[in-house]
Structure formats: structure tokens, C-alpha cells
């Protein structure tokens, strides 16, 4: 029988933690009873430098339940890095991991189906949202625009899949060999290449607390996702430049012809507009190129993506 670890990144989640822990423990117990996973399976809560009582709650839960494990990160490193820290920690001690957000907006009822698909031969099983009726209109449209935009920009990601997924030990080991700092798991996981499968579920509203992904974070997440996976924006800038050069050649020919026909060139406003316009285009293009140069700079430092403060592991006590 295979050992399952559920990995849950938590940032300021004291409001949802007690009920999430309880529900996840119930899932683990149920799967153990059905003999689908081994008795030493559990849940790893990764505390991503929370400023509230999240870590205290995790430590208490660790003491009172043999299914609860805790990983305390030294400082806030963001959802993606926290999740990676969790996966890297469990990859050597378990056979299967399931990652899920602490607010349990994703349906824990399909974890069993994910495990079944793992036994059927899949190394990676994506949880895919079949509907987002309970998200606010704003969240739904921004998120969906995001997935479509990513696809248009050439990033290979699974539509309507967040970070709710099952991974086998070898998939996690493969993942740990991707060293980039600009981490966008949804884009990297499909690159691994092992056999994948999907389960479908309806996304629920957040039980308590508020979203840790305000618009600003979502935009920077999208920007990171695109610039870490595709150089299409630079291509677009180049194509745009070429079109403008072509237009200016046409304009030049037109001016020459009107000169020979005796027309005078009217006013300087058109001139000013084009100078401003081209200046703007140049600055914008420079900015995009600069983003990539900046990323290269950040990657070249090869700094660690997270540091571990403490690991509460039942395997060691
Ligand atoms: N999270 C984290 N570090 C952060 C921000 C968020 O570990 O800096 C966790 C958070 O606790 C939750 C998950 O990432 O488990 C997703 O966050 P949230 O539910 O707020 O995002 P949303 O569902 O609104 O996109
Ligand atoms: Mg959420």
C-alpha cells in the first residue's frame, strides 16, 4: 500500500485551519479504512511565514493527531515556493502527494478519485474546475481571462486547473530538478512529461478569511507566468517595430510624391504625435526586454527559494 501525503500551504489561515485540518484528517482516515493508502499517511501543513497564530495551531494539531505534520518556513516566500517546499520535503518520504489550498475551495471529495487514477497508472492527476459559479463575477472573469491569455502567450498550462493535483514520488523528484526562481508550478508540471489524467469538480467559496490573492498579486502572478515561460512578448514587440518601420517607409514615399506634386507638408502636430508615439513604443519595448534581463539576473544568482525553520515529522518521533 502506498503512503499519501497531502501538502497544504498556509499563510495567515488561523480562521480556516481548524476546520480544514478536521476535514482532511477525515479524508485520510477514510482512505486508510478503504485500504487505498498506508496507515502512516498524513497531511503536511506548510506555514509560509504567517503573522497570525497559524503555526501554533499547526503545532497543536501535530501533537494531538498522528496524521498532522508541520513545516515551518523561515519567512513568507509566497504560495508557489511554499508549495514547492512542502513537495520537496515529502518527495522522499511518501509515494503520492496531493496539493491543496488551505481554504479547501477545491473539492476534497475527489482525492479518492485522484488516488484511483494514480493506481491506474497516472503520475500526475490534475484537479480541474468544471464550474466557478460560487466565485465572484470579478474573480471568475479575471481568472478565466488569465488562463486564456496564458494560452495565447504560448504557456502550456491546464485550463481551469489551479494547484490542486496529485503527484507521484518520481514526478515530485523530477519537479525538484527544475531550478528556476520565478516559479510557476502550473506551467512547469505539464513540462515534466509523465502520464497525466484529470478529475473534475465544482469550486466552492472560501470558508473563512479573505483571499490572499488580491488583483495586484494576480497580475504579478500572471506576468511571472508569462515571462517565465514564453518570449512571445518580445516577439510581439519586434513584429510591432517592423510594422511601424514599414508604415514610416510608406509615409516617406507619400511625402516625396506630394513634394513633387507641389503640395506643402501641413503643420507640425502630426510630427509631434508620431514622436511621442514612437517614444512610447520604444520605452514600452525596452521595458519588456528589461523584464527578461531582470529575470536572467535573478535566476543567475541561484538563491535558495525557501529556508526551513522546523519540520514536525511523526516519522522521527
Ligand atoms: N498562500 C501562501 N503564501 C502566500 C499567499 C497564499 O502559502 O503568500 C496560500 C494560502 O494560505 C492558501 C493558498 O496559498 O492556502 C491560496 O490562497 P488563496 O486561497 O487566498 O487564493 P485564491 O483561492 O483566492 O486564489
Ligand atoms: Mg482560495
- Report the sheet with the most strands, covering strand number, pairing sense and barrel closure: 8 strands, mixed
Helices, by number, come to 10
The Cα radius of gyration reads: 25 Å
Uncertain spans: none
Number of strands: 8
| Oligomeric state of shown chains | single chain
Helix content: 40-55%
Assign the structural class, choosing from mainly alpha, mainly beta, alpha/beta, alpha+beta, or little secondary structure.
alpha/beta
Describe this structure in words.
There is one protein chain. This protein is of the alpha/beta class and 317 residues long. The chain contains ten helices and eight strands. It has an eight-stranded mixed beta sheet with strand order 7-5-6-4-1-2-3-8, with helices on both faces. β2 (42-47), α2 (54-64) and β3 form a beta-alpha-beta unit. α9 runs antiparallel to α10. It is elongated, with a radius of gyration of 25 Å. It starts with a strand and ends in a 5-residue tail after the last strand. The model has no long low-confidence stretch (mean pLDDT 89). Bound molecules: uridine-5'-diphosphate and magnesium ion. Magnesium ion (MG) is lined by residues 101, 103, 105, 206, 211.
Amino acid at each position: 500500500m502506498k503512503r499519501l501525503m497531502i501538502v497544504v500551504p498556509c499563510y495567515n489561515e488561523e480562521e480556516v485551519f481548524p476546520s480544514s485540518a478536521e476535514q482532511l484528517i477525515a479524508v485520510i482516515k477514510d482512505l486508510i479504512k478503504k485500504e487505498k493508502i498506508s496507515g502512516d499517511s498524513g497531511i503536511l501543513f506548510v506555514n509560509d511565514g504567517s503573522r497570525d497564530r497559524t503555526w501554533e495551531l499547526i503545532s497543536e494539531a501535530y501533537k494531538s493527531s498522528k496524521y498532522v505534520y508541520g513545516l515551518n518556513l523561515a519567512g513568507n516566500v509566497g504560495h508557489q515556493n511554499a508549495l514547492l517546499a512542502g513537495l520537496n520535503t515529502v518527495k522522499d518520504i511518501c509515494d503520492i502527494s496531493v496539493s491543496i489550498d488551505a481554504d479547501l475551495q477545491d473539492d476534497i471529495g475527489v482525492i479518492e478519485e485522484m488516488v484511483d487514477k494514480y493506481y491506474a497508472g497516472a503520475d500526475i492527476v490534475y484537479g480541474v474546475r468544471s464550474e466557478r459559479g460560487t466565485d465572484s463575477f470579478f474573480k471568475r472573469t479575471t481568472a478565466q481571462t488569465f488562463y486564456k491569455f496564458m494560452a495565447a502567450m504560448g504557456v502550456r498550462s491546464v485550463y481551469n486547473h489551479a494547484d490542486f493535483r496529485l503527484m507521484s514520488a518520481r514526478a515530485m523528484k523530477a519537479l525538484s530538478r527544475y531550478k528556476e526562481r520565478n516559479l510557476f508550478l502550473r506551467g512547469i508540471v505539464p513540462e515534466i512529461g509523465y502520464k497525466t489524467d484529470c478529475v473534475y469538480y465544482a469550486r466552492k467559496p472560501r470558508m473563512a478569511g479573505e483571499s490572499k490573492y488580491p488583483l495586484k498579486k494576480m497580475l504579478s502572478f500572471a506576468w511571472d507566468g508569462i515571462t517565465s515561460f514564453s518570449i512571445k512578448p518580445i516577439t510581439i514587440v519586434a513584429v510591432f517595430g517592423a510594422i511601424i518601420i514599414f508604415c514610416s517607409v510608406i509615409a516617406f514615399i507619400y511625402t516625396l510624391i506630394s513634394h513633387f506634386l507641389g503640395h506643402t507638408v501641413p503643420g507640425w502636430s502630426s510630427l509631434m504625435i508620431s514622436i511621442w508615439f514612437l517614444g512610447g513604443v520604444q520605452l514600452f519595448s525596452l521595458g519588456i526586454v528589461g523584464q527578461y534581463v531582470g529575470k536572467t539576473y535573478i535566476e543567475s544568482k541561484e538563491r535558495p527559494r525557501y529556508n526551513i525553520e522546523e519540520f514536525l515529522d511523526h516519522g522521527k518521533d
